[in-house]
Design brief:
heterodimer, A: alpha/beta, Alkaline Phosphatase, subunit A, 9-stranded mixed sheet, 31% helix, B: mainly alpha, 3 helices, 0% strand
């Protein structure tokens, strides 16, 4: 039996980075070709809190109650074991940068830095790198590269209200602007990774949620509606355990944590059951359909039906179908994604057999 | 013998009629499934004493302050 040597773990959240853009970036694009890359990772929520808590707990927010920004204070620690705790128990030094502690769970990090000011982040990263170099242990570190978020807030959220038609009429311009923000994020990730000897590391880069360019009226960037562009993310695994591999099968943000535990041979805590499942079997060639569950809790001022404390839009997605349920209006939408990837043609109440099956899958999570 | 999986509950007819009107055009196939849905919602609320709506004013303010600094609310 091979003995697994401990490895350093580097997690990088590329906040709001779309998978279709990530593959075209100068640095990340090249890294993709050397990694196990999943381009259809569906986030539990298209806001950072719900997304992060589900990634770090392996369970959906409807179980952990971290199901909205306000839900972070209700997080039920006894219903899961955090990824950070697993590594801390393995003797790792655990270190994090986050935009805010309502986003990334603070528990079990030896040191945790909140920093939003982009000007101060290079100095913070230098300090974190110094701590990693001198910690005398293997380390588990998280960096939050939030440049896309920051630029979107500056150039979209502060300039356009969610009902400003002008914004939705300039999709091409929004797309070009977004690409510039993504280039900035790419350069920051490159600079950061140049400081590491990646041969002794497992590197995971992912986005917490996606972003829209304004194609759907009512959704300027993310967090208001529940369509694919804001939920679709990616996960890139780089290291000796991960061969060059690409998959466009639907998987989930909650699958990232069990994947890391799997490759590190860390046994899952038997007391809690994760919603996520390791991606290793898929990397080894297994074909498997996974169902992604997502929810949205729109903030005040970002929707006709705001519900900042509790999700009011719910969805399930398979490789080819998606069902949405709007709690505030008690209505459903059904999309055939194979033929309608932009979710334009609602097929609900057309007598399709798949409708009942998708409702069963959705209500399994809601009931 | 298996336990009965369903039971009968009576509600006033005018209430039932109003509920029937509400489910027209929705995904609910019957009045029973809609009533089950409503009751589950009631139970879910009451079994979760510290739901998002039960945060203290200080906790709410902490989140709002964070949301302002993140740029999501004014």
């Amino acid at each position: 039996m091979l003995i697994k040597m401990p490895k350093n773990i580097i997690l990088i959240t590329a906040d709001a980075l779309r998978p279709d853009v990530a593959v075209h970036l100068p640095f990340l694009g090249k890294l993709v070709s050397k990694s196990s890359f999943f381009s259809n990772v569906f986030s539990y929520q298209n806001n950072s809190t719900g997304a992060f808590y589900s990634i770090f707990s392996g369970i959906y927010g409807n179980k952990s109650e971290a199901n909205s920004y306000f839900g972070s204070l209700n997080f039920k620690k006894d219903r899961c074991k955090l990824l950070t705790q697993y590594f801390k128990e393995q003797g790792y030094f655990t270190l994090a940068h986050s935009m805010s502690d309502i986003i990334l769970p603070r528990e079990h990090f030896d040191a945790y830095y909140c920093e939003l000011d982009e000007e101060k982040i290079p100095a913070l990263y230098d300090r974190m790198l110094y701590e990693l170099k001198h910690c005398g242990k293997n380390f588990f570190v998280h960096f939050h590269v939030a440049l896309i978020h920051t630029r979107i807030i500056e150039n979209v959220a502060k300039k356009f209200k969610y009902k400003d038609k002008e914004y939705y009429e300039q999709v091409e311009k929004n797309k070009e602007n977004y690409f510039q923000y993504a280039l900035e994020a790419d350069a920051r990730i490159q600079h950061l990774l140049e400081q590491f000897d990646l041969r002794s590391c497992i590197l995971v880069i992912y986005s917490d949620h996606g972003t829209t360019y304004g194609e759907k009226f009512g959704e300027r960037f993310y967090g208001s509606l529940c369509y694919d562009d804001t939920l679709r993310t990616f996960a890139l695994f780089y290291g000796a355990d991960f061969p060059a591999f690409c998959s466009d099968l639907v998987v989930r943000g909650v699958d990232i944590m069990p994947t890391l535990l799997d490759v590190m041979n860390i046994e899952e805590d038997g007391k809690t059951i994760m919603d996520g499942k390791s991606l290793v079997p898929l990397i080894k060639g297994k074909k498997e359909e996974r169902v992604a569950f997502s929810e949205v809790a729109p903030l005040q001022g970002s929707s006709d039906y705001p519900s900042p404390k509790k999700p009011n839009i719910h969805a399930v997605r398979t490789n080819y179908w998606k069902l949405l349920f709007y709690r505030s209006t008690n209505t459903y939408e059904l999309y055939d994604l194979k033929n309608d990837s932009h979710e334009d043609k609602n097929l609900i109440n057309r007598g399709l057999a798949v409708e009942g099956e998708m409702k069963r899958l959705l209500h399994k999570h809601l009931d | 013998m298996d336990k009965k999986r369903y039971t009968t509950i009576t509600i006033p007819s005018p209430l039932a009629n109003k509920l029937k009107e509400r489910i027209e055009g929705t995904g609910f196939h019957s009045l029973s499934s809609y009533v089950c849905y409503i009751l589950r919602q009631v139970l879910a609320h009451s079994s979760s004493p510290k739901s998002g709506e039960a945060l203290s004013p200080q906790e709410e303010e902490k989140i709002k302050e964070n949301l302002r600094s993140l740029g999501y609310v004014d």
